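Hey, quick one: can you model this chain's 3D structure?
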Amino acid sequence: MNFVNVMPPEMLNEPKSRGEVVRLNYHTETYDEDGSKPLEKGAWVYLPHGYDKSKPYNILYLLHGGGVSEDWWFKMFPDTLTILDNMIEKGVCEPLIIVTPTYYRGDKTDEKADYVTENFKTELRRDLIPAAEREYSTYARGDVSEKNLIATRSHRAFAGLSLGSMTTYRAAFYNNFDLFSYYGPFSGCCGPFGNHAVEVERILSTLENGLAKGYKLDYMLCCNGTADIAYPEHKDIMEQVEARSHILKRGENYDFFVIPGAVHDMKAWQLHLYHALQIFFTK
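Sure thing. Here's the predicted structure for all 283 residues.
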């Protein structure tokens, strides 16, 4: 993989063909603690140009950062769509489906990071994935039974930025490793107040337990910038993991891409996505 430190200019040109962004509405009972009506939620779904319901597509679940919503990647930063359209049009990556949900409950965006990043695991497994893969043509082919979702894990990826990067570890990696085989943590693992030793052990045990059950890691692409506030903790944790793990192998199923001078911003995160999509579903 040839990593670049700046988005290639041709990725920002007007593409000849555009994909489509559609709304996925679903409900979740994950938060129905008081017996009230299940929470209605929504996500945006990118369907590549020429989307054909008769063909299966790989799928990426892509999260935003703290204090915003599912609008972040596609609505607040529509140039993300330009990048995706160009990548697919130019053959840089294969056509795929991308779902951008939110871990927040409605307008409750002030919840503690530890809670939302960990608790999203249940909604992800029970509600979001079944809703998305029942509606759109993935390798699950509409069969969203747990057995089939596990069987098709190599066609499913999860990535996120900042608080979404923490969620990538906690909700998707630690708690749903049997459903995903590709991961993209962009900017952070546990936040500035997290316990590095705890995260290291969780990562190692997830890899070991997964391998014992027959679930291999196809690829984890960690990304950050040297001037990103989340870089020191992310770097330290993954260096400890890499030093101790016999499973993670640079260039085979793992890498840590670093942009010199990059900060905690969308320009860097779009570049991380650009690189991830050249690796995901190719191993």
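One thing worth noting: The radius of gyration is 18 Å.
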